[in-house]
Amino acid sequence: MNTSRRHVSLTLGTIALAAASFAYGPAFAQETIKVGVLHSLSGTMAISETVLKDTILMEIDAINAKGGLLGKKLEAVVVDPASNWPLFAEKTRQLISKDKVAVIFGCWTSVSRKSVLPVVEELNGLLFYPVQYEGEELSKNVFYTGAAPNQQAIPAVEYLMSKDGGSAKRWVLLGTDYVYPRTTNKILRAFLKSKGVAEADIMEEYTPFGHSDYQSIIAKIKKFSSEGKKTAVVSTINGDSNVPFYKELGNQGLKATDVPVVAFSVGEEELRGVDTKPLVGHLAAWNYFQSIKNPTNDAYIKQWGAYAKAKGVAGHKDKPLTNDPMEASSIGFNMWVQAVTKAKSTDTDKVIAAMAGQTYKAPSGIVSKMDEKNHHLHKSVFIGEIKADGQFNVVWKTPGPVKAQPWSPFIPENKGKKDEPVVAKK
Length: 426
Prior knowledge:
Elements: H1 2-24, E1 29-38, H2 46-65, E2 72-79, H3 85-98, E3 103-106, H4 110-122, E4 127-129, E5 142-144, H5 153-161, E6 170-176, H6 179-194, E7 202-207, H7 215-225, E8 231-236, H8 242-251, E9 261-263, E10 283-286, H9 295-311, H10 324-343, H11 348-355, E11 359-361, E12 367-370, E13 377-378, E14 382-386, E15 392-397
Parallel strand pairs: 1-2, 1-3, 3-4, 4-5, 6-7, 6-8, 8-9, 9-10
Antiparallel strand pairs: 10-14, 11-12, 12-13, 14-15
Helix pairs in contact: 2-10, 3-4, 10-11
């Protein structure tokens, strides 16, 4: 009798669990697949990176709602390296060794990525890096879903040199003082000189992270631009310094018709806290803008808007914005899901092999492809003008996706370098 009662009890319990699973969502194996999220949620880079954390959480929710991955629920492990570059390495070691994450989505600045790189190589981890960068790097353990210089910086300068872009003859290379702006500007200097631009027609200036007083620099740019030749500014300013830079640009009346500024790290999110009316016509070069019209982007914006509202995402609950690094994060995440599904495993080496040639219908309107060798996406390039509402009007684009050149041909030392990552020593 006791045995029979126990059997009935167990059976009823099983039925109850199955019913709960049916009512509340898919049943998962007890073990989860942990996903590391490594973005600055405080400090100077929080203005740009916080929304990328939320993007990955949105994508995790979407996969879990479809039944998870390999029958398991995805579990986010979110850490805050707080715009502290050495802390990125420490948090990466924690994520891989202690938290046992299968993959990390994170970093914005190149100095943070450079901090993380030796750790993921040593521990054979996997990093998806979603932001444009200077190139000059390839790693077995990193997938670069942002733009290389030939997918952003070079096309932007070529556009400004063209008749449509204003036929610029003098150049101000203005950036935050770290590896991405300095290396990008080294490439741009060499490119400009190859086009016959004289040394005297190139001005180069750097400011530290968190810099807020741009009064004297804007005055210097105005003086430089008044010396008889059409001048353009190439901005690689990163983080919250963009807000005072653009405010000062407006204060001093430096209009796009006089001295156009093209930015590589300013999108819809960074312009949120700025009066954009005086900035109309200034430019940004990216591989995606929210204003791009196509059904895939419409669905992406709708997905983000619903998620932001449901989760009360700061700043996005009532005015949801998407941007290029968000799109790059989503592409990388979904390609990783496809690679894990193909490999039937989260094993790093198996996933790396399965990532080669992965494709994904991107919100930008193209089918993004992960290059079979160089761990970079083939991406279209767009140049957009700032509008009064903080959105961008696309004024130029490439005919189709552009293959990345991680090793720039404008750096002589790169001659003969292979366009594929060296296998890291274990």
